[in-house]
Amino acid sequence: VVPLQVVIDGRAVAEGREIGPGEIAAALRRRSRVSTSQPSPRAFLDAYESVAASGASAVVSVHLSGQLPGTVDVARLAARDAPVPVIVVDSHSLGMGLGFAALAAAEAADRGLAAEEVADIAERRARGSAAFFYVDTLDYLRRGGRVGAGKALVATALAVKPLLALSGGAIEPLEKIRTSSRAVARLEDLAVARAAAGRRADVAV
Question: Best label site of 36, 67, 143, 148, fewest CB within 10 Å?
Fold first, then answer.
């Protein structure tokens, strides 16, 4: 894992290593300036060199949506100098949408498939995923640059609970619900409708 950098009041720390979700949420609540920054090319190159030194003949590098921080572009830049071939996969997702793609890739690699096949499986798994989420306010997404100020102000003025979804790797408004309980119930409806295609579905909450 190559962590994103979380920048709080100008201080950058590694997400998941030096800071966790609870601390980030607390910083947002106290209205600190919070943003994210992609890892450096050197961080990716260190990871690629490390797995190559441990015997890997190739790397399939799976990342969160390129529509969010520019992580995918930095990974591709680092891949040029890697000691083994690196295939960078843009999951067009985040959270467990990315996680399911990474797990599928790991399982394929464990079966001994070639790197190109592993990358293809990761991409297909990512394309087959959907992400829906509810936020009580768009303020945090606005402050992090994930949604426009206009949309956030309209939602606040109307006192609605926004349902959001990933579309083409970007966060887009889906529906506006009046209460949080209805919003959560609607999320369940959306997930069931998305999964009701006669196939097994993996669900993460």
Answer: 148
CB 176 within 8 A of CB 163: yes
CA–CA–CA angle 66, 127, 92 (5° rounding): 10
Asked if 28 and 54 count as a contact pair (C-beta separation under 8 A), the reply is no
3-state secondary structure of 12: strand
CA 26 remoteness from chain centre: 21
Q: Judging by beta carbons within 10 Å of its beta carbon (0-12, 13-18, 19+), is residue 10 exposed, middle or buried?
A: exposed
The whole-number mean pLDDT for each consecutive block of 10 residues of the chain, a chain of 205 residues, reads 91 92 90 88 97 97 87 95 97 92 97 97 94 79 57 52 84 85 91 82 90
Say what the pTM is: 0.83
